[in-house]
Design brief:
Order of helices and strands: HHHHH
Helix content: 55-70%
Length: 72
């Protein structure tokens, strides 16, 4: 299981490149990477497809939970 930021940095992609790849914008990629946004089902499917299943909903949920539990 790998999160989106790790996947992106391992491939030396910019957030703009990932945004284009998954059909969204840079602010959305940033918010997903930092756990400030949970992607909807369509965007999550595009992330999984673009990363060949390397980035899963579980990995993104883990980042989201860590961010939001720490905020409580």
């Amino acid at each position: 299981m790998i999160d989106l930021k790790t996947w992106r940095t391992q491939r030396e992609f910019t957030q703009a490149q990932v945004a284009e790849l998954i059909g969204t914008n840079v602010p959305n990629v940033s918010r997903i990477e930092t756990g400030n946004q949970w992607p909807g089902p369509e965007l999550m499917a595009r992330i999984e497809e673009a990363t060949n299943g390397e980035v899963t909903a579980s990995a993104i949920l883990q980042v989201y939970r860590e961010k939001n539990v720490a905020a409580e």
